[in-house]
Amino acid sequence: MRNRKFKILLITLLIGIAVALVKWVAYLLSGSVFILSDVLESGVNIFAGAVALGSVYLASKPKDKDHPYGHGKIEFLSSGLEGVLIGLAGVLIIGKSIESLINPGEIQNIDWGIYLTGFGGIANLVMGLFLQREGKKINSPAVSANGKHLMCDALSSAAMIVGLVIIYFTDIYWLDPLFASIFGIVILVTGIRVVRKSVAGVMDEADEKLISKLVSDMNESRRDSWVDLHNFRIIKYGSNLHIDCHLTLPWYYSLEKAHDEIKAFEALIRKKSARETEIFVHADPCLPHSCKLCRLKNCTERQHKFEKRVEWTRKTVIQNAKHKV
What we know:
Blueprint: H1 2-30, H2 33-59, H3 74-102, H4 110-138, H5 141-170, H6 175-202, H7 208-221, E1 228-237, E2 240-249, H8 255-273, E3 277-285, H9 314-317
C-alpha cells in the first residue's frame, strides 16, 4: 500500500511539473493574465504534490511509543496545507486580475494559449480522475485531495479555453482579467472546502456515511448472542480506522466464550471495512431489561419474554447507553 501511494504521487508530481512548464510557455507567448492564473495554480499543484508525497511516506511508518495510533493523521494535515495553498493561489489570481483591470497589458498569440491550455487541461483531467479513483480505493485523504485539486484544475482549464475563445473572436481584451478574477474566486472556494474536510479529519468529526454503512452490514450479520451495541465510534488515521464500542453479551458467558464472541464481532467489522482497522470492544453484561430485546433462544436465565429487536442504525449505536424496549 505504501509503495503504491508513493508511486502514484511521484508520477503525479512529475506530470504536474511538465504541465506547469507547458502553461508557462502559453503565458509567455500570450501575456494573458487569465493563463497566468492557470500557471499559478499549477505551481500550487507541484508544491502540494511534493507535500503529499512526504505525508504518504510519514503516514506509512509503523506505530511507535510516541505515536501509538500510527502516523496516519499527517495525511489530513497534508490535504489541509494543500487547501491553504489552493486558497492562496486564488487570492493571488484575484489580486493580479484587479491590477490588470486597472493597468491592462498587451495580449497576443491567444490561439497558442488556447492549444497549450487545452493540452494541460486534458492531462490534469486524466490524472485527476485516476487519483480520485485510487484515493477512494486505498482510502487515502492525501491522494484524494490531490485528485480533487487536479479535477478542479481541469474544469477551470475548460472554462478558461471558452473565455480565451471569446476574447480571440471579439478582441475585447478587458475580459481577460475579468475572467481571471472569476477563476480566482472559484479556486479560493475550492481551497476553503479542502481545508474544511481536512480539519474534520483532524478533529475526528463523525463520518456518518461510513458509520451507517458499517452498522448496516453488522446489523444484517449480527448473532443472537450479540444482545446490544452502543457507544460506537470511529476515528480515522489517514487510510486506517480505529473503532471502539460496547457490545452487550449474556452475563453468564465465561471469559473464554465472551472472548470468542468479541473476536467474531471484530472479524466481521474488519471484513466489512475492507481496510486496516484497529478495534477495541468493551464487553457489557446483559441486564434484566435486556431480555425484552434479546433473541437468544433457550436462555435459562431469561426473566422477560422477547418483545422487539432493536435495529442497529447510526442513530441507535452512537448512544452511550444500553437500549430498552
